[in-house]
Amino acid sequence: MSKLREVNRPIEDAVVGSYHKIEKKVVDSYRKIEDRFIDAFLAQDGESTEQARARVVRQREERQCQQDRRAGRRER
Questions:
Q1: Rounded to 5, what percent of the chain is helix, strand, coil?
Q2: Quick one: where's region Disordered (predicted)?
Q3: Using one digit for the tens of pLDDT, what is the confidence trace for 48-72?
Q4: Angle at the Cα of 27 (from 26 to 33), degrees rounded to 5?
Q5: DSSP state of 47
């Protein structure tokens, strides 16, 4: 059984390594698309991509808190 394991080890390493390379490429490509969308549609004058992203996240969290508070009032 150990010979089979030894033979399969390089194959396993190659497959896992290839998967990680593909995963990284996909995530990096998505991030580029996301950044371009933020720059084009969400960033305000003089605001960097990261600043716009942080602002959008903060606004989303604020809306969620407001919705949670409203839902809490309805349950009472």
A1: 90, 0, 10
A2: 53-76
A3: 999 999 999 999 999 999 999 998 8
A4: 90
A5: -
